[in-house]
Specification:
about 180 residues, alpha+beta, 3 domains, 6 helices
């Protein structure tokens, strides 16, 4: 081989180099995810792509179009689907999402389990006349409540309406919404 290299016959070297680079992008070489409970899937990209499509379809069937949950899930999984269908290598897709494809598939499975529960619970339905307590905190002193107000807004969540605090431009931070004693 050294004689070939010295004489300029580098075809064997180039063949070995190409074979080495191709092996770097082969999913079959991954022996473990390194995560307890998540096994290596040799077809992880295809599985993940199918799960993304399933999540988008299911959320479209069961969740109202005006719900913030639906918009968030659809945007997230459309982005993930577009990336997984791109020409990037599996490792580049994993780097884009800072997660392994197997992890992303597990997240999609969990979202598929959550969608029917969200459809049953309907957290986007606020009873007519229900008042939501909002606390607006001062930008100069985040521990000081600058204003508290109680607002009723029919069947729409105030968060979905994109309303700003009364004096958003004059030093108020975004509100923390209290609903049945929980902060959002």
């Amino acid at each position: 081989m050294l004689r070939r290299l010295a004489t300029g016959a580098t075809s064997l070297f180039h063949e070995q180099k190409i074979a080495f680079h191709q092996s770097l992008y082969c999913r079959g070489l991954k022996g473990s995810t390194g995560i307890v409970g998540i096994e290596v899937d040799p077809e992880a990209r295809q599985t993940f792509t199918e799960k993304c499509k399933a999540v988008i379809d299911l959320v479209g069937q069961h969740i109202p179009q005006e719900a913030a949950y639906r918009r968030t899930v659809e945007n997230t999984y459309r982005h993930r689907l577009k990336t997984s269908e791109s020409e990037m290598a599996d490792e580049e897709v994993e780097e884009t999402f800072s997660a392994q494809l197997e992890q992303l598939t597990k997240m999609a499975d969990e979202e598929l389990a959550l969608i029917p529960l969200m459809a049953e619970w309907k957290p986007w339905d606020v009873p007519e006349g229900h008042k939501v307590r909002r606390h607006y905190f001062s930008a100069t002193n985040p521990w000081q409540v600058a204003q508290t107000c109680y607002e009723a807004q029919g069947h729409k969540c105030l968060c979905d309406l994109g309303q700003q605090p009364p004096a958003a431009s004059s030093g108020f931070l975004q509100p923390i919404v209290k609903f049945q004693g929980q902060s959002f």
